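Standup notes
- DV: blocked on the single-chain target, sequence here:
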Amino acid sequence: MVTAFRALGRAGATEVCICCNTAHPFARSAAAAVCIPFLDMIVATAEAALLHLRPSQKRPLWVGILSTDATLEMGLYQEALRDAALRLLGCADMVTVLLPGEESVRTVQDCILAIKAGALDGVGERIEVEAKRLVAEGAQCVITGCTELPVCFNEDSHPAFPTPIVSPVRTLAAAIVRRTQGRTVRTGPRLE
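- DV (later): unblocked, structure below
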């Protein structure tokens, strides 16, 4: 990653990002090692989730997470949501993160592997079942915290889902567009 980010910087990139949730700790370190700003998808997604829910609610906001077991174990979204709540709401305790149980984590992992293999039949419905478990526990939105999950489970594919579905990939794409609007976008390597 260090090599890739260094090459992107030499090619003229002013900021780097990746769309793999689980690799974010490594990408953050790689970007820091080559002194290039890192557009953090997990931070942007945590903020987007809270902004979906922020209106005048007095009680804590409840956010459900579906992702790889590694992303859950590393606490990437748990930490990002607490930090975002502190920044946006003035109190880290304003957010409660709901995680799937062991069986649900296994099901989501199986769905991720099926998507990677191109076996998409019924996968969206299986993911929806797991997301609805989080909603039943109180989730007011669900983050699809693995790049593959939004392929089969998103607000377009499941418009009747009872809460917002926050896609990190869509959030990252929107952040990139916001950052590049009004800028001249160069193509090709810099001539020196």
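- Follow-up: The two ends are 24 Å apart (CA to CA).
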